[in-house]
Amino acid sequence: MKHNRKIIYLAGFLISVPIALTSYINSSLLEIYVDKYFLGIIYMLASLITIIGMAKMPKILTRLGNRKSTLLFCLIFLASLILMGLGGKGFIVIPAFIFYFVSVNLIFATLDIFIEDFSKNSPVGGIRGVYLTIINFAWVIAQMMSGSVIAKSSLPGIYLLSALFVSLVCIIFSLFLRDFKDPQYEKVPILRTIIFFWRNRNIAKIYLITLILRFFYAWMIIYTPIYMHEYIGFDWSQIGIIFSIMLLPFIILELPLGILSDRIGEKKMLIVGFCIISVSTAMIPLFSAPTLLLWALILFATRVGAATIEIMSESYFFKSVAEEEADVLSFFRNTNPLSYIIAPLLAIPVLLIVPSFEYLFFVLGAVMLCGLLISLRLRDVR
Length: 382
Hints:
This protein has one domain (2-376): Growth Hormone, Chain: A (Up-down Bundle). 51% of the residues are buried. Helix 7 packs across helix 11 and helix 9 (201-232) runs antiparallel to helix 13 (292-318). By secondary structure, it is mostly helical. It has 16 helices and no strands. It has helices spanning 2-23, 26-30, 39-55, 57-64, 66-86, 90-117, 124-175, 190-199, 201-232, 236-246, 248-264, 267-283, 292-318, 326-333, 335-353, 359-376. It holds the Pfam family MFS_1. Residues 203-382 form the Major facilitator superfamily (MFS) profile domain.
């Protein structure tokens, strides 16, 4: 079991590098073909398709098994990266991005099932902490690479480099984990899943907390690179350095906080995390000078809050469900695509109303306070 867990840790690292390399530049690539004020529409379409895909997950897993399903989604991801890098036309790049977005979300849903299975009879918070730390380490390394790669080969070079990493993941799932025994995946109608969340109020609250955090990520991923590059004046190599520093809290904090959650519960740390993320996000518009260290510090502070919320919400949820509840896991993972629907729906009218782009971050800081209110009403699970 420990050996298989290491394989998933490696796969999680390798699949996270291409996602991290491309996530913060996807909006800049799409902006070549779509006005930045309407980028959100593409994200919304990709998110709707992802939610449909998540609803079909139990059926896919039952037919193919988790290992083959992961391999299939990785192959789709690989093809989409190549098309985004070499397509050169909107009618190629935009559909490729949609396949990219859908496959990434499905891959992480299948990796969750592996981790759940390999975590039996082990402390959940600690194992989730290790897994998330490894994934976030990949994000830091990727941001350190991205600026120089863009400078040397432009945006397409990033996507082709990313495709190489995905190729390695495809090899892993082709050669390893053949002995993985799939659980009996429950096929539960979506209405029953919604009723399950409604009746289990604390799980419903942690779902909302995770949705708010994913909303934060979606908003930041779509709009922060544009704001820093076009409005503040940073070049891509500087942005790469800033983002590398920004992501360090995920490496530093998530493992020790995951272990801590097994001892003291998650509620207190969720409250602290939302206080930090709300204040630091609302401070972003107060800085307009292109000072690298200053921006690195303020974005670092936002991710201290985000890292705390992330590990606490993951730990809480996976203490409360089992791996065979694929419908519940899929519904929980819908927070990511759902956030990419809600964020643009709010951002587009805000952009049309507010006097300037930086007001987006005041709004985002206010939204984070909703997570604080929900955390105050949460009951710890041990």
